[in-house]
Amino acid sequence: MITGQENQVPAEAHKAWASILELSAREVFSLMLAAELTSSSEPAIENGLNITSMVGLAGSVCGLLSLRCSTSSASLIASKMLGEDLSCVEDTKLDAVGEVCNMVAGNFKDKIAGMGDGCKLSVPTVIVGEDYSLRALTNDYSIDVKLLFDRFPLIFSIRLNQ
Amino acid sequence: MGNIRVLIVDDSSVMRKIVERSLRQANLAISQVYEAANGEEALGVLTREKVDLILCDINMPVMDGLEFVKHLPAVENAKGTPVVMITTEGSESHVVQALSAGARGYIRKPFTPDLVSTQISSVLEGKQ
């Protein structure tokens, strides 16, 4: 569980950045997995989202972009990326989720005017398990985007400090 | 160009496989693929093997891609070998940094196999 202050981006910026985050995720899944993410009208069920990948942003904007998903969706992500069934290969699943998060973060920052040149990405970190509390030091703004990959929920989150 | 030997440098094993698959889908005559998880490992490979093309990520632990490219002029097996960066860092300054360091091409993740094919073919044609 990622916790922190509940401050939100001002409404207009929130809407714009949430759209950019969603577009960034959709592009990565379309190009690298040949898969389309869909919106869900139902609230995402967060139980079972036991894999969290995180990429840090540092520079003109500091923050953390994360992707939370289930083991089943991680398997599907890896299988789609590599075009083969990988249901039993744990390291590959985690590597795939980390790399997807990394590409979404890179895509996101390149779409925000002025952020691409002045902001660097960390290498991805992946946490397995749900029973944790993470407090990012960059909690000025938070945006969550919930999408479905096949039938599995994915939650893309960004915590920013400006 | 036939019998191309390629070195793929990326800390993600998944991404190394995807890049290799993209090269094979591009119908390039790949004869050998070497892999390394960071710049330091890649320099180790190049002490033993000569390759025709290096595909390299930028953000990697131990030794990143830009640092790796700067070391290449001193490596006998890498002299004249073109390097193409494949990275999530797509900003103008990163592209300029990579090209200034000696890279011949730049592919931004996410990518399509067609883009990889076009870029690699162009770089290899330039080498001939």
Architecture overview:
The complex is a heterodimer of chains A (162) and B (128). With 162 residues, chain A is of the alpha+beta class. Chain A has a single domain, classed as CheC-like (Chemotaxis protein chec). In chain A, the strands form two sheets. In chain A, strands 2, 3, 4, 5, 6, 8 and 9 form a seven-stranded antiparallel sheet that branches. Chain A has a two-stranded parallel sheet with strand order 1-7. In chain A, strand 3 and strand 4 form a beta hairpin. The N terminus of chain A is likely disordered. With 128 residues, chain B is α/β, with parallel strands linked by helices. Chain B has a single domain, classed as Response regulator (Rossmann fold, 3-Layer(aba) Sandwich), CATH 3.40.50.2300. Chain B has five helices and five strands, in the order βαβαβαβαβα. In chain B, strands 2-1-3-4-5 form a five-stranded parallel sheet, with helices on both faces. In chain B, helix 1 packs across helix 5 and helix 2 runs parallel beside helix 3. In chain B, 40% of the residues are buried. The mean pLDDT of chain B is 90. At the A-B interface, helix 1, helix 2 and helix 3 of A face helix 1 and helix 4 of B.
Short recap of the structure:
The complex is a heterodimer of chains A (162) and B (128). Chain A is an alpha+beta fold and 162 residues long. Chain A has 4 helices and 9 strands; from the N terminus they run E-H-E-E-E-H-H-H-E-E-E-E-E.
Descriptors:
heterodimer, A: 162 residues, alpha+beta, Chemotaxis protein chec, seven-stranded antiparallel beta sheet, disordered N terminus, B: 128 residues, alpha/beta, Rossmann fold, five-stranded parallel beta sheet, 43% helix, globular
List the helices and strands and how they pair.
The complex is a heterodimer of chains A (162) and B (128).
Chain A: E1 2-3, H1 11-33, E2 37-39, E3 51-59, E4 62-69, H2 71-82, H3 90-111, H4 115-118, E5 119-121, E6 125-128, E7 134-135, E8 141-149, E9 152-161
Parallel strand pairs in A: 1-7
Antiparallel strand pairs in A: 2-8, 3-4, 3-5, 3-6, 4-9, 8-9
Helix pairs in contact in A: 1-3, 2-3
Chain B: E1 4-9, H1 13-25, E2 30-36, H2 39-48, E3 53-56, H3 65-71, E4 83-87, H4 92-101, E5 105-108, H5 113-127
Parallel strand pairs in B: 1-2, 1-3, 3-4, 4-5
